Amino acid sequence: MNVLSSYRLSILLVISIVAGSAVGHFAPGVAAVIKPLGDLFLNLIFMIIVPLVFFSVASSIASSRGSTVSRVSWMMLLVFLMTSLVAAVTSLVFLLFVQPAPGAGIALKGALPVETPSLLVQLVKTFTVPSFPEMLSHRAMLPLMIFSAAVGIATRQLGAEGEPLARVLRSGSQVAMRLIDYVMLVAPIGLFAYFAATVAETGAQLAGAYTKLFIAYYLFGTAYFFLGFSGYAWLAGGRNGVKRFWSNMLAPSLTALGTCSSMATVPVNLEAAPRMGVPREVSDLVIPVGAVLHKDGSVIGGVVKVLFALSLFHLDLTSGRLALAIGVSILVGVVIGAIPSGGMIAEIAVLTIFGMSLEALPLLVVISVIIDPLATLLNSTGDNVAAMMVSRAVRLPADTTATEPTTVT
């Protein structure tokens, strides 16, 4: 029952999507009638996303505690970045080889630039806007995030003088997240109507594209889980490191799959890490921080979303776009993943950075639902092997007091 409760919303959304797709296929006239309900759902999200981003980003920075940067924390960040980069590059190569989405025949209309601007022009347009009102739009996610981060940094640096604003930001973040909860109450109806209309317009190609994405993600994700994590464990401790890692991975893996939550897996990871040879000074820092910042499964999902979005609008896979795809996937999986309710922000960031129409937002959100179980498994269990590599790099002695888990008979 706990597993069903953890996946209840995801199951309900999948049922709504399947039912909507069936209506779109068998009753396109009905799909056209209920299409405004899908538009209403999108409009509600677009109205809330700006205050959500501002309050979430600003409050998370303004409320963060200062700490002394040590070699452990620096090495932790380096390991996080390294594994994220490996996940992004290898998944991109794999997806380009199997081509799960390009050429699917789904062409969405959108305001796309006819000419590709220079790199400097594109960077300026991506990270800035000409005026403050233009920043208060879901079409300017990165400028809004930069402004929000600047507000949070300034508030934190002011100390006691900035504390009143910090309290307002924290309260605003909670209110914005509650508003998102309200909107998600109508998500099944909204997605039902949206997919009914989309399938009626695109035909069966959409279902085929999702099926191929599902197969591609789970094939690569499973290989990354076994081969990638084994490689990281070998780097951390050779053959013995691989043995220690996998002999203590059952409980964290089952917890991640059963709860569908990286945070819920933190206590189990902290218990397993010392038996993998990770000293407490490392595991007590790397694992909690990793639950927020280290998300290889989400990085791989970011690559999938970028390639899927490019295929929706039939954009060529140029070298510039592929390089940007790697950067965006790390941004989506690591930076935005650390923001409360960052998932919706991630999809909008993918579309806006590449200059695509936001009408494709629900199509990308569905990918998160499809990949969620395996993504959570990779996100959660990857923190243990990262802690092993950090321990090897800083050469701290292993925790000799670690014991095997108690077995109840």
* Largest sheet entry: none
Portion in strands: under 5%
- Could you tell me how far the N terminus lies from the C terminus, measured between alpha carbons in angstroms? 23 Å
The total number of structural domains is 1
| CATH topology annotation | Proton glutamate symport protein
Can you walk through the features of this model?
InterPro entries: Na-dicarboxylate_symporter, Na:dicarbo_symporter_sf. Pfam families: SDF (PF00375). GO terms for molecular function: symporter activity. This protein is 77% helix and 0% strand. Helix 2 runs parallel beside helix 9, helix 4 (71-98) crosses helix 10 (205-247) and helix 10 (205-247) runs parallel beside helix 17. It has 17 helices and no strands. The two termini are 23 Å apart. It has one domain (2-394): Proton glutamate symport protein (Orthogonal Bundle). The chain is an all-alpha fold and 409 residues long. The longest helix is centred in the middle third of the chain and has 43 residues, at 205-247.
In short:
This protein is an all-alpha fold. The chain contains 17 helices and no strands. GO terms for molecular function: symporter activity.
Layout of helices and strands, plus pairs?
Blueprint: H1 2-6, H2 8-26, H3 28-62, H4 71-98, H5 119-127, H6 132-135, H7 141-157, H8 163-185, H9 187-202, H10 205-247, H11 250-259, H12 262-272, H13 280-293, H14 296-312, H15 319-335, H16 342-353, H17 361-394
Helix pairs in contact: 2-3, 2-9, 3-7, 3-8, 3-9, 4-10, 4-13, 4-14, 4-15, 4-17, 10-17, 11-12, 11-17, 12-13, 12-17, 13-17, 14-15, 14-16, 14-17, 15-16, 16-17
Keywords: Cell membrane, Membrane, Transmembrane, Transmembrane helix, Transport
Main location: membrane
Organism: Geomesophilobacter sediminis
